[in-house]
Amino acid sequence: MSNRRNWLKQTSLGIAGLGIIPFEGFAIPTKEDLTEERTVGPIRLRSNENPYGPSELARKAMSDRIHDSNRYNWELYDELIGRIAEKHALTDQHIVLGAGSSEILNLAALYCSKRTGNLIIAATTFDYWTITAENAGLSKIAIPLTADKKHDLAAMLNAIDADTRLVYICNPNNPTGTICGSDALVNFITEATKRTKVLVDEAYLDYTDQPSLANLVAENKNIIVAKTFSKIYGLAGSRIGYALAHPETIQEMNQLQFSANGSVSIASASGAIASLKDSKFVAATILLNAAARKYTIEQLELLQIRCIPSHTNFVYFSLENYRKDFFEQLKKDNILGTKIYEETGKWSRITIGTMQEMKQFIKAL
């Protein structure tokens, strides 16, 4: 226990030393806040959740407004959309809310499926949502990743034809944790959007120092940027996300919803508004995640498990040289992992939890 507290204090001092926030103003997660303190239940390392969230400000905001759940949340919609617009230097007309970015991806799929054609994605990427597009009439074209598990932007651009309705880029990519360089991605979008729609999923971008592509939507009608409160803000269970796009695109997407912006609850909207104000929590999460991620990669490589450099709160690794039954080892220690994403190389993914959770993960192996 004392070791954990000392480590958190050292991390906090590091944050102060970097000039991000003063140490005395940093809310160190309490014993009750950290999942590492749980004595029952599994260690959840499968869904890329933030183990430190929601922040205290978000929890209080949700608690304070829960008694208003008998009312509709139209006023909160306006406030939340306004704050999101301010964050990205856009207007309210550039934003649509959804119950997590999953609903946003689903909405974008419906929007781009008005005419039959094809959808271009990477292989491997976050593709569960594409079943909506396929059911609506789009065929899926999967472009293999490069040898270092990055999007092959040149190949994706070459694959666009007259029938392409949408290109999907998850950046950073899930499950690989790789990232497209900002200049290369902007160049790709500039060319691709001359011919089709491009959907950029920035669910994990907050873990990086790379800027959002939000500034492109003001002029470019063919780009949609999906964002979420599920990851860095720790609101996965609250189900709240949003899309940034040109006002004409947003208007057309809204027409595909029974009630535009209507799927976000009062509690969720309140938590999201508070989260946007809590820069200290975000800064702390980034550093805590980076420390646990560094430890995990170093330890996995000592076990001869090859890792892909990660820009996210998860790590992609090859089990090709691991001689034990990886998933059985996790099961014995009540740890929830994911699956094999690529049979060639036996590539899998693990979420970065707290430092203590990752130590338990390595011990299990």
Task: Describe this structure as you would to a colleague.
α2 packs antiparallel against α9 and α10 runs parallel beside α12. The protein is globular and about 55 Å long. The strands form 3 sheets. It has a 7-stranded mixed sheet, with helices on both faces. Strands 9-10-13-12 form a 4-stranded antiparallel sheet, covered by helices on one side. The chain has a two-stranded parallel ribbon with strand order 1-11. It is of the alpha/beta class and 365 residues long.
Secondary structure: helix percent: 25-40%
Beta fraction of the residues? 15-25%
Please list the strands of the largest sheet in the order they lie side by side: 2-8-7-6-5-3-4
Count of individual helical segments: 12
Rg over CA atoms: 21 Å
Distance between the termini: 23 Å
* Largest sheet descriptor: 7 strands, mixed
What does the average pLDDT come to?
A: 90
Q: What is the N-to-C succession of helices and strands?
A: HEHHEHEHEHEHEEEHHHEEHEEEH
Can you count the beta strands? 13
Q: What is the global morphology?
A: globular
Note poorly predicted spans: 1-39
Q: Structural class, please? A: alpha/beta
